[in-house]
Amino acid sequence: MALAIESLRGIAQSIVPSKDLIGAFLTLNICACIIVLIAQKWNASSKPSRSSTPDLEKPASRSGREKVTRTFGEWTPSGFKRPMAQPYPDWDVHTSKPIPYRPFRYGPKYFVTMGLRSMKFDEWIELDNHYLKYHADKAKRLTERGDKCYGTAPEAMDGAIELLEELCDYLPERYPTMFQKTTTGITNKVTQETFNITQRPLPEDPMATAARLIQDDLAIMIEKPDGEYYLLAGAILLAGFWRLRDKFGMPLSEIHTSGDVPQYKEKLEKGMKNFFRRLKPEEPVVRNNYFIQVDDQLAWSPSIGSEDAEEVSWNTAEKNRAIEHHFFRSERQSLRRLPRSGAVVFTIRTYFEPITEIVKQDYVPGRLASAVRSWGDDVSRYKGKEKYQDVLLEYLDRKHDEQVAAGLKVDQEGEARSYPY
Ligand SMILES: *[C@@H]1O[C@H](CO)[C@@H](O)[C@H](O)[C@H]1NC(C)=O
Question: Any stretches that span the bilayer, and where are they (predicted)?
C-alpha cells in the first residue's frame, strides 16, 4: 500500500474555513510528519518502502541528534554552501509548461501525512510560462493589500535578507535566460526589473522583493529562545484560502491549537518541534498537496468568503456548482534551513487548473475519484467536500468510464509513474 499524502496546507486550506490558515498548514505539516513515521514503520513491515522516501524525521546520525542540544534560539552559522545550480534544461519563459503534479493516491485508506521527500537543491524553485501572469498578479496584490499580505518582523530580518541573497545567487544559475546576477543584486531581463539589495534601508520589505522574483509564496519560521518556531516573515500573495495576518507572529503550537487541529497536542506537537529543530541546511525537503476549489480565482477563493471578512469558511460556499467552476489547486512546498541565519524558509508554489482539463490525462479521473472517496470525515470537512462531492464524483466517474471505454488499461498504471505523478 502506498502512503497517502496530504497537505500541509491543503488541509490547512480546507481548514481555512475555520479561519485557521497558516496554522493549519503548519500544523498539518507537522502532524503529517508524525503520521509519516508511523505509516512508514507500518509500511516497512508489510512491503519494501520506497527508496525515494527516507525517514526524514530521524536524525541521520548521532551527531545529528547531538546538534539538537544547542541552546534554543541560537544558531551558529553552519558554513554550508549550496552546490551551484545547473541551468533548467531548455527552459523558456514563454514555452516551458507548468509541471502537471497530480499528488493524489488511490483509496480506500487515506492517511494525513507530511509526505516529505528529499529535494535536490537545483529543484528549489520552479518557474514556467505562467510566470508573467503570476508576476503581474503579485504586483497587484502587493499594491492593493499592502502589509496585510507580507511582512518581516525584526527577528526575521536577517533570515529574510539571506533568503533574498540566496535567490539572487540561485535564480541566475538555474534560469540564466531570465535572470542576471549583478554586483548589488539581480536583474530580471524579461520584466526589466533591477533590484539593489545592498541599499539600507531596503527600498521595500525583503519578503515582498523575494516574492516578485518567483511564482511561489514565501514564509519564514524563526526559533526564539523558548525553543518554539514562530512565523515571523512572509509574503502570502496567491494562497487562495489563507491570510498571513491571521497567523503572523504565532508559534507553531498556537498556530495549531488555534486552528483546532485534531489530535495536535497528543500526537503532533512533539514530532513537529523535533522536525523543525533537526532540519539541516544540507537536507532540504519538498512535499505536494492538493485540494478542490469551486471558483476560478487563484489569489483568493471568494467561495469561502471575502478576503476581508473576520472569519472565512466553507460553510458559505455555494453547493453543487457546475463542473466548469471546479478547479484543482495543488501546491509544491519546499522547506530549507538557511545556513547563515538558521531561518527556516517555506516556499509554496501553487498550480491551478480546471478539473475539466486535468481529467484529460489517463488515469487521473479514476484516481482522483478514489482519493476523494478515501477522505475521512475530518479531512472531508477541511477540504469542503460536502460542497462539491456530488457534482465532482459523478463527473470523475463518467470521465473514468469514458477512458476505460476508449481502451485504458486500468491494471497497467502500475509503478511506471510514481507519486507525485
Ligand atoms: C545600490 O545601493 C548602494 C547602497 O545604497 C549604492 O551605493 C549603489 O550605488 C546602488 N547601486 C545601484 C546600481 O543602484
Answer: 21-42
